[in-house]
Inverse folding.
């Protein structure tokens, strides 16, 4: 999982406080900067959380490979979508799904969203066409990367194809208007044309989020269960061993909680985006839905960063 420079939650607080000045010409980009900053926070949140899920998966595959008679079938299925891992209490072969294709597709979707936020902010704050052209090209490249990540996930590709088309088309149309010197019209075109795509992205991310958290819990519970079968007989060694396993259990629960903490921000995303469009005709009105989105993104990121210190 790719890593990036740690995001500073304090910046989100500063941006939220500054939203009160959005009506002025000098602060015309503040609300768009807030949106951009929050979407970037969601990316870093995902990088941390998904990295944790991948670590659990690595530990799980090592345990499964070590089970008697499992190595041959594991090697055979290594390039597939899951791995066999012994048998359950009913004697059926237990299988675990490889989370990496889904996690990569979700991360690509969030990065496309962040680059959309960057383009939106560029349109609002930049007074030269080169910046807009670069942001548009970056977003379109990100959408293409998302489609590539969706290739092994047929259902997800079908669901998000329309979303990526809407975002890409709106970005190119808005970029053309901006070059012609029509900033407000360009912003309206981008916001209105992308609303449906933003809604679809949010719905898909919410649908998957609970599933990813469930995967993390299932990996953790299996690993803890396997560890219970190999507890040392010696009392002193067992105490240290049990403490380590208990910490592993707590870390798994914390990771699942951090993943689901993104839900509030993702739920607030479409309404915050719609509010930006409405604000074009209602300058000076409070941006409560945007503030809620920014605050939720900050809270989710702070929780994810706590995992790095566990």
């Amino acid at each position: 999982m790719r890593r990036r420079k740690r995001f500073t939650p304090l910046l989100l607080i500063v941006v939220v406080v500054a939203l009160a000045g959005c009506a002025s010409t000098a602060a015309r980009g503040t609300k768009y900067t807030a949106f951009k900053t929050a979407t970037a926070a969601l990316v870093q949140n995902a990088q941390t959380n998904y990295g944790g899920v991948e670590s659990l998966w690595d530990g799980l595959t090592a345990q499964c490979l070590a089970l008697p008679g499992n190595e041959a079938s594991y090697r055979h299925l290594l390039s597939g979508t899951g791995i066999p891992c012994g048998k359950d209490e009913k004697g059926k072969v237990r299988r675990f799904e490889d989370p990496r294709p889904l996690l990569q597709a979700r991360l690509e979707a969030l990065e496309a969203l962040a680059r959309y936020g960057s383009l939106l902010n560029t349109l609002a704050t930049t007074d030269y066409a080169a910046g807009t052209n670069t942001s548009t090209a970056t977003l379109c490249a990100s959408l293409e990367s998302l489609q590539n990540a969706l290739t092994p996930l047929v259902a997800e590709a079908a669901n998000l194809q329309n979303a990526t088309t809407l975002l890409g088309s709106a970005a190119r149309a808005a970029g053309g208007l901006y070059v012609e010197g029509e900033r407000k019209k360009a912003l309206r075109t981008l916001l209105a044309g992308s609303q449906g795509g933003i809604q679809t992205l949010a719905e898909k991310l919410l649908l998957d989020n609970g599933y990813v958290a469930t995967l993390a819990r299932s990996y953790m519970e299996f690993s803890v269960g396997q560890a219970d079968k190999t507890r040392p007989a010696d009392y002193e060694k067992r105490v240290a061993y049990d403490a380590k396993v208990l910490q592993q259990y707590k870390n798994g629960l914390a990771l699942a909680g951090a993943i689901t903490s993104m839900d509030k921000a993702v739920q607030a995303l479409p309404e915050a985006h719609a509010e930006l469009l409405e604000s074009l005709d209602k300058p000076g009105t409070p941006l409560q839905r945007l503030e809620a989105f920014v605050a939720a993104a900050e809270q989710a990121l702070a929780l994810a960063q706590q995992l790095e210190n566990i």
